[in-house]
Amino acid sequence: MAYVFASSHYHLLVRVDNARQLSDFMCYFNGNLAKELARKTGWDDKVWARRYRSIVISDEEEMQVARLKYVLAHGVKEGLVARVEEWPGVHCAVPLMTGASVEGTWFDRTLEYNAFLRGKELEPGASASREAVEVSPLPCWEHLAAEEYRVRIADLVREINEAGAAARAESQIPPLGPEVSGRRTPRPVPGRSRSRPRRSAMPCGRRSGRRCGRPTGTSWLPTARRRRSCERETGPWSSLRGASRPGCRSWRPEAARAVSAASRPPIAEG
């Protein structure tokens, strides 16, 4: 009935017969969508952070229209685009308003895999086929004619655009625009990562922390070896300032004698 896809999530407004049908559909949809996204972007980890969340909508017309309006408002209510029609991603608003057909390309990966097992190479486009998506109306509006249904959708979109313009006029924040919204990468990586040295009260501990704790990318094994050698060199940590430690550059003989004298039992005078 409605759909919208953002950079980090998507929303579907669907009608099912029972919970089992919804579960089977979401398993099939999320599984195939994750495979295609990983194939297209080179994603090497899981795509979905958690299981899908389903919310039951009542038969009340007010609630159904409110949920439809919530889906249609994506892109405008976040301040990404000025109008619903400008959303660069997959959005149901324009097809619902104009009655245009929604088509996509389906790739038969099973056919491609079987050909790979037989050692054959398929012709370009042999596994691709065009599929049309039919969007059904809301249950509370399914008695309306097609033209009347499109008019009501257009009214909702106009209300969303007007509310977005009023919010921008109040906040004085312009929308990012479809070009900037479409350039957002699905795998943001910081250009520079910060590394903090180990906290230590002793100068040698700070130096060893900077030497051993410096990030080295994928070369974790040499770092681990240096850390172990540093621990053998400096010995166990001490909670006393100036305590003597073998191999500690900040060790001072007078500090060692003071600690040694403090640890002796008192001598009773007769």
Keywords:
270 residues; disordered C terminus; two-stranded antiparallel sheet; mainly alpha; two-stranded antiparallel ribbon; 2 domains; 43% helix; globular; 9 helices
Characterise the protein shown here.
- There is one protein chain.
- This protein is mostly helical and 270 residues long.
- It has 2 domains: 2-102 and 135-182, no CATH class; 203-263, no CATH class.
- 43% of the residues lie in helices and 7% in strands.
- It has helices spanning 19-41, 61-72, 93-98, 109-117, 146-171, 178-182, 203-212, 220-234, 253-263; strands at residues 2-5, 10-13, 102-107, 128-133.
- Strand 1 and strand 2 form a beta hairpin.
- The longest helix has 26 residues, at 146-171.
- It is globular.
- Residues 213-221, 230-251 and 266-270 have low confidence and may be disordered.
